[in-house]
TrEMBL record:
It is found in: Secreted. InterPro entries: Glyco_hydro/deAcase_b/a-brl, NODB_dom, Polysacch_Deacetylase. One of its GO terms (molecular function) is hydrolase activity, acting on carbon-nitrogen (but not peptide) bonds. GO terms for biological process: carbohydrate metabolic process. Its main location: secreted. This is Polysaccharide deacetylase. Pfam families: Polysacc_deac_1 (PF01522).
Amino acid sequence: MSVVPILQYHSVAENPPEWAAPLTVRPDRFDEQLEHLAHAQMSVVPLRRLVSAIRGGPPLPPRAMVLTFDEGFADFYWTVAPMLAARELPATLFVVTGAIHPPGGRPSGSRLPPAMMLNWRQVAGLDAYGIEIGGHSRTHPALDTVSGRTLRSEIEGCKRDLEDALGHEVTSYAYPLGYHGPTVRRAVRQAGWDSACATSDALATTSDDPLRLCRLTVRHDTPISLYDAWIHGRSARLGPPPESLSTWAWRLLRRTHGPGH
């Protein structure tokens, strides 16, 4: 078993909207973090390569790790992608398809508060360049609080949106807000997604369930000492936690307050 940190970013910007500020990393801090990866001689690999290794494919290189970005903020196109390209680093971008702007029109809508988001032309351009585009639902609900047609739309519909726009299969999914459960994971698998990322602030390993991949959330105030510990496989538990009675109780409570919680 190998430990493979999967880092979860959101926005990289100087002046994010207030709601996104806690999960936004300044560009200079992001550049510092990328430099830190280089000095540590980390091997940043595509998410699909990790999934392949979990499923018995070729082994990963030493000090392997994965970079992921959630939501589909416009700064990924203007700020993040050039910084990754300068270092030839792969990444996966999980987009909320209802928040992406179509040519000359308005997005279909999501539960995310207002922010500058990507348009479909930019998403296609990133895909053509080599950034893996993954699904992050259509509207960003807590998936373990919805069911039936709504759940299928958020999982299957998101996949159709992306494949129609990009012209090829997409295989990587990320649970909005990190919430999932057996029913959600079954729906993700049946929809044809090959992997799915949660949050959990835990270290992923090559022994994990590909539909329960843990990530470590990089926040605006994540100290470089903790960042260093994470990429070296320290200061976080291994793998997803077991689903306890308290997990089920918390899920039931959130269902009573609607799918956005």
